[in-house]
Amino acid sequence: MTLSPLPTLLVEPLVRNALAEDLGRAGDITTDAIVPADLRACLALNARQAGVVAGLDCAILAFRLIDPRVEVRVRRPDGSPLAPGDILAEVEGPARGLLTAERVALNFLGHLSGIASATAAITAAIRPHKARVTCTRKTMPGLRSLQKYAVRVGGGANHRFGLDDAVLIKDNHVAVAGGIRPAVERARAAVGHLVKIELEVDSLAQLDEALALEVDAVLLDNMDPATLREAVRRVDGRMITEASGRITAETAPAVAASGVDLISIGWLTHSAAVLDIGLDAV
Q1: Are 167 and 252 in the same domain?
Q2: 108 with 147, same domain?
Q3: Spatial distance between the Cα atoms of 229 and 231, rounded to a whole number of angstroms
Q4: Which CATH number covers residue 107?
Q5: Residue 44, in any domain of the structure
Q6: Which of 6, 141, 235, 255 is the most exposed place for a label (fewest CB within 10 A)?
Q7: Among the options 221, 229, 230, 276, which is catalytic?
């Protein structure tokens, strides 16, 4: 399946804000002092480690917002696998514009490619099983749409985009409501017929309550693989099962082998390591 890029309307304000933050009150005083205004350059975005490309549109937009005369030749679009030394794209144009936009372009590209690469690694680790990797709402402020896009680029799926997407009843909701049943019943009475209801449980006893209430999905939080297998057996296809809780590429295969439908991982968006990408002279 071809992944559609994010609409420019969503991306451009984020890139503009990042550039404005970097330019400050006087612009790039280093580049403007050193580089002649009429000098042109050709630079390449190079991968310095293996991974998956994501965020190339953000990088290109950063260059072109600084100087619309910048020309871009894309070699490896978003979703492409990378080996060290691979060229993602070449950018050519006024040298001042290329150097001024460099850091913002690389910030977006490295961060989003890091998310896509981490997602791809876990997706590959659980490939023999039906489970899909999904992100959470644990995103960096202002970057949610980009980070969730990067998860999709890496072969993962998206959880809720916000609090208004679906009902997710967590432990604190249950505590404040006075129990699982009143929490679920109040939610069902309040939302429309198209809104899904998911309930977080951390024990098989709570799962049994969820089964009696017929919620749409159940979040199996911090359960070991043996408990997850028993949970999946009890659910028996009656609702979507989602495992969560400090899952890594090393632990994900055992979690997936339990038979769960989804594996949600918060660190993909808030803590994935940046993929090392550089901008070098051609």
Answers
A1: yes
A2: no
A3: 5
A4: 3.90.1170.20
A5: yes
A6: 141
A7: 221
Query: How would DSSP label each residue in 196-235?
Result: -EEEEESSHHHHHHHHHHT-SEEEEET--HHHHHHHHHHH
Residues 45, 152 within the same domain: no
- Catalytic site residue 138? yes
70: containing domain: 8-115+273-281
Helix ranges (DSSP H) in the chain: 8-23, 29-34, 56-66, 95-125, 144-153, 171-177, 180-190, 204-213, 225-235, 252-257, 267-270
Q: Which of 48, 75, 132, 138 is catalytic?
A: 138
12 flagged as catalytic:
no
- The pTM of the full predicted model, rounded to 2 decimals, is 0.96
Catalytic residue chosen out of the listed positions 40, 130, 170, 238: 170
pLDDT digits (tens, 9 = 90+) for 220-250: 999 999 999 999 999 999 999 999 999 999 9
Supply the CATH number for residue 234's domain: 3.20.20.70
Q: Is 83 a residue whose pLDDT tops 80?
A: yes
